[in-house]
């Protein structure tokens, strides 16, 4: 059997991207376990205004509240039909964060109000958060180049000027 080197490295790249995309999608942000892909419906319905926030970054209680308040979602109308709400809620509940630092529902059910988030971002100054290119801490992809693929690795962080 003939094997092409290009084919092999292509497959390896695809695998690496796949792993990156699913890093934070896991239930407990444990990077060692098997990956969990994002539900296509989630990609479809929850990424028109911001990135697909990884389910593992909020506890089930927060996702439940968010999913029951979609018509009044942080000043936006993010309402969906009942069947979609049900499908997404089930998936989010099943894949919500469960480890110790995720357990407590943050204020406003915002990832950006979690204590771990504050800790991980303690080097980011108030002025930096307010830069026009950042605008909001919720705008993860301003600094995390691969955020839309679920990759928040510190090596891929670039703070815009
Ligand atoms: C119509 C636009 C829109 C859609 C669709 C939408 N959102 Fe949002 N979402 C927002 C806005 C606006 C914010 C606040 C962003 C900010 O503070 O900068 C937000 C914030 C959030 C946050 C909190 C981010 C933080 O600060 O940590 C979560 C979690 C979230 N959305 C989940 C979802 C989910 C789940 C869906 C799909 C069911 C969804 N959103 C669909 C507009 C939307
Ligand atoms: C203003 C730029 C900026 C924004 C916006 C931002 N981050 Fe970060 N993030 C950073 C910096 C800087 C670090 C620290 C990197 C380091 O430790 O060297 C970091 C670290 C992290 C880490 C830890 C990475 C690791 O490898 O330990 C996570 C997880 C993370 N951010 C998630 C998020 C999420 C989720 C959002 C959006 C809700 C977000 N960040 C928004 C700049 C940002």
Description:
This protein is mostly helical. It is 35% helix and 0% strand. The protein is built from 6 helices and no strands. It is globular, with a radius of gyration of 17 Å.
Q: Brief description of this entry?
A:
The protein has 161 residues and is mainly alpha-helical. It has helices spanning 5-22, 40-45, 60-68, 82-95, 115-120, 126-129.
Beta-strand percentage?
under 5%
pLDDT < 50 stretches: 15-35
Count of separate structural domains: 1
Largest sheet: none
What is the terminal separation in angstroms? 52 Å
The overall pLDDT, averaged over residues, is 85
Bound molecules: heme C
Radius of gyration: 17 Å
What's the number of helices?
Answer: 6
Q: Specify the helix fraction band.
A: 25-40%
- Number of separate strands: 0
Shape: globular
User: Which structural class best describes the helix and strand composition?
Assistant: mainly alpha
The SSE string, one letter per element, is: HHHHHH
């Amino acid at each position: 059997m003939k094997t092409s080197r290009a084919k092999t490295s292509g497959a390896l790249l695809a695998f690496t991207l796949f792993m990156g995309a699913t890093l934070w999608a896991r239930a407990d942000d444990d990077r060692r376990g098997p990956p969990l892909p994002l539900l296509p419906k989630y990609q479809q319905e929850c990424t028109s205004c911001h990135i697909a926030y990884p389910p593992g970054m909020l506890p089930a209680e927060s996702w439940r509240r968010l999913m029951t308040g979609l018509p009044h979602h942080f000043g936006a109308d993010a309402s969906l039909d009942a069947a979609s709400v049900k499908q997404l809620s089930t998936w989010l509940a099943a894949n919500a964060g469960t480890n110790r630092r995720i357990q407590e529902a943050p204020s406003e059910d915002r990832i950006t109000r979690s204590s771990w988030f504050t800790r991980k971002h303690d080097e980011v100054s108030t002025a930096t958060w307010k830069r026009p290119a950042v605008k909001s801490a919720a705008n993860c992809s301003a600094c995390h180049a691969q955020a839309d693929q679920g990759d928040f690795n510190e090596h891929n962080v670039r703070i815009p000027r």
